[in-house]
Amino acid sequence: MAEDLNTYTHLPLTIDPQSKSISLHPSAGLSSVQTRALESELAALNNLHRSLHSLDPPHLVPPPPIPVNPKRSAQVSKLRDSGNAEYKKQKYGEAAKFYTLGIQMALARPLWEPSQLVREEVHSLFSNRAQAHMWMQEWPEAAVDAEASVEAKRVGNAKAWFRRGKSLLEMGRLEEAREWVGRGLEVEGEEKELAELGREIEKRLEARSAGSAGAGAGADN
Known about the structure:
Layout: E1 2-4, E2 7-8, E3 13-15, E4 22-24, H1 32-53, H2 70-88, H3 92-107, H4 115-135, H5 139-152, H6 158-170, H7 174-188, H8 192-220
Antiparallel strand pairs: 1-2, 3-4
């Protein structure tokens, strides 16, 4: 501690490993007046540390003059449109490549841009790529993409709910498909295609149960 410009006194301080707060060690040997003065300074320092630590990291980066880069938005839209064009030509692999580039560009937005904008962009791109995978019978990839789309937008996204449910059905994961479609119907209401898929899954489950029962009866005989 600097008592004046020509004197330096070394004081034992401790730091809490969890909170990182600094305090004066009891062995400092200061007078009560000196102790109170130093503890007041340490309290102010600890309060400043807590205030800085509690800041939300995105706010540490100053935003640019334009909060949303219109060029990036236009590029994401162009990649999605290019993917849709390839999809209509039944070039599903090429369509998936464009959707992938669009997803990468959307997810690379700076932290200061609205997260809701990213969600709106990627939910459709993931859903579209899931559909392309389905046409190529790449069911695991389709299931993953459709789930990612739902994570980005749960409500008003019946196509993605349907596409994951259909992919699980095609993989023979009937119980998972039934649970997923049931959750989708709770969110989307009695959406026609989703409800029909639910009935198809129930028929498959019943057929499997009947087949298992018949095989068991045959074995007993």
